[in-house]
Write a structure and sequence with these properties.
7 helices
Length: 197
């Protein structure tokens, strides 16, 4: 009874789902209490007057928290993470965590919030679930991230001296899915199309 579940244990997904639900309930509760102000990406989709905004997204063991950059939201997010830690014993991996701000947020506040949350600012080439996430400062060179990943795969496969049939199998299995995943998140410029083909 003393030891935990091993990786691959049939109970692991259920246990993980329970923990993810505890986290989601924490964020929703704080939002309903008016302690966490969510993000409203489009007034046609989410009406700010309804009080229901986007606060977080969970996928497997990745968490993306989205909120207005205010001291109240900062403290609320920290309190939810502390509550989850107290209930489950799980910790946030701060080395893998980062924070990204709108260009409208003052630099002093960015530093303060990063310090309070113990999180480093995200780099300009920030990724979530393998897809490059862009802010207002979108650069044309960053739009070719998918092509760069495909080129790296091709170079490795050429170096492995695979037969042409082996390379074609890998291309069909791996490279064809790369742009599809990214295109669900953002539209590609027309200039990228010839590189993908």
């Amino acid at each position: 009874m003393g030891r935990g579940l091993r990786q691959g244990d049939p109970l692991s997904p259920y246990l993980f789902t329970l923990v993810a639900e505890i986290l989601s309930v924490g964020f929703r509760r704080k939002q309903k209490q008016g302690q966490l102000e969510g993000y409203y990406p489009d007034a046609h989709i989410m009406d700010p007057r309804s009080g229901i905004g986007l606060t977080h997204m969970l996928y497997a063991d990745d968490l993306l928290v989205v909120a207005r950059a205010t001291p109240k939201n900062c403290h609320t997010i920290c309190s939810v993470l502390k509550e989850v830690h107290c209930l489950t014993g799980l910790n946030v991996n701060w080395d893998k965590s980062s924070i990204r701000f709108s260009p409208m947020v003052p630099v002093q506040f960015r530093r303060w919030m990063s310090r309070i949350m113990h999180v480093k600012p995200a780099s300009s080439k920030w990724k979530y679930l393998g897809v490059q996430i862009f802010g207002q400062d979108r650069m044309p060179s960053q739009k070719h991230a998918t092509v760069e990943v495909a080129d790296k795969h091709l170079q490795k496969w050429k170096a492995n001296l695979l037969t042409q049939a082996g390379r074609l199998t890998l291309i069909k299995a791996v490279l064809q899915s790369l742009p599809l995943h990214s295109m669900f998140a953002a539209s590609f410029p027309k200039a990228v199309a010839p590189h993908i083909e």
